[in-house]
Amino acid sequence: MKISVIKSDLEQVDTDLLALPFSSGALKKETENTLVALGFDLQVLKDFKAEAGEVVVLYGGSKKLAAARVALLGLGEGKNIADWRKAAVAFAAKAVDMKLEKAAVDCSGIKSLADATKQNVATLAAAFVEGFMAGMYEFDRLKSGKLEKKKSSQKPKEISEVLLRIDGDVVEEIEKGVTEGEIVGSCQKMARDLVNLPGNYLQAEDLASAAEESGKKYGYDVTVFHKKEIEALGMGGLLAVNKGSFHPPTFSVLDYTPQGQAKLVIALVGKGVTFDSGGISLKPSENMGEMKSDMSGAASVLGTIEAVARLGLPLHVIGLIPATDNMPSGTAQTPGDVITTYSGITVEVGNTDAEGRLILADALTYAKEKYNPDVIIDVATLTGACIVALGYKVAGLFSNNDKLADEIFQAGQQSGENVWRMPLWDLYDEQIKSDVADVNNTGGRGAGSVTAAKFLEKFIDGHKKWAHIDIAGPSFQPKGAGKVNGGTGFGVSLLVELLKKWA
Ligand code: BES
Ligand code: ZN
Ligand code: ZN
Q1: Least enclosed by CB within 10 Å: which of 15, 178, 483, 491?
Q2: What is the pTM of this model?
Q3: If you average pLDDT over residues 1-13, what whole number do you get?
Q4: Can you tell me which atom of ligand 1 is nearest the CA of 441?
Q5: Catalytic annotation on 111?
């Protein structure tokens, strides 16, 4: 898909659908003036309230109009970037729905929108492109099309061109934003594809290959430890979870080193459970298929590192991805087992379904020991309890550092990937005490997402700047939860936003 910035009269924009964004405040005067100028009847405004993400398609208008159709695009009050992004998502989804090939948006008001939202023009352009790419996302690579009733000559249409129409002297800024938006948007798409791929298409080795491919393409190092090396390292958490599996585990290390001096060293750890059946503590079968998304943290880390490499940020960013599926079998670990993790800390496996924390434990220790980074952040679909607490749109944030927690919260507000901080008080340690080992991997009924985070905290070896982001809710939208189904790529936009602030 080609995205271009053009300077031309509104009437001359040659496209299938031209979007005219309006905020509710500007609705009366500005919309009326524009519509009259384009030859539309003001009656059309009866159905348009400029709610964020509202799209009303208009037909007719002046004969001079080069665009085949015009759409009124609602920005809500036009005071925040989230509504602008929402509008971009909705506009793209509409264009896909209508099977159009070319879409355009009038960005002549982008300067005043930038003032009203306290953003710069490049940021708004980036958010639009990112939103548009998210809105047109479809996961159809496993559809053969063989059962569709259509004439063989009919090629399915998809959007091939997007135009951002501007006036004034903001071309360079907008183009900078478009480039950045395209990078983040495509990394998000890669993450979503990985999440949506089912277990029979994506095993640990496949996840590692995806990282290797990305590293080769965008110039960062990827080292994959295979089962023998994982055994030699003594990663007892990852090996224990993998015990029931037919497929070997992998531990991938993605290493992006910038050209010049790196301002900070950051380790990003992502949970890569390619399918979580629960193991011997088997999950109920209803919706178990959604557990193909249990590697969403890994996908977000991979997407983020690729984006950082493509943006060339002056940071040393290391991605660590422990990967395996979690299966029951005669060789699987069993509840009550005591395992020794990479750190040497022993763990009583109270529940084999609390597997994420076992593989993350090894990766966190490895991150601290090998790199001693300035910051460690892990991203994981860790607990159902986090969904109970915060729902499907917001991630849980846990951190032992107030400044880091605040920075991640702010990045969430800016990127639209919202996080909410939860406590890490030591009083929760009581719940994960074990009689036979150093710690238990389950903490009983209450505060499941907190006890999971308290467990992880034991493996950072006293590191002072660590955060854990539980993305169990927002990483995957179950069928019927809203317009978006399946993998969301949650975390890419959030982490890139955070890293850009540090760059
Ligand atoms: N992968 C799940 C958490 C999860 C649940 C992610 C729903 C996305 C949607 C995790 O491995 C898990 O099973 N956690 C258990 C922990 C419990 C056994 C202590 C849970 O949340 O029930
Ligand atoms: Zn589990
Ligand atoms: Zn899991």
Answers
A1: 483
A2: 0.98
A3: 95
A4: 19
A5: no
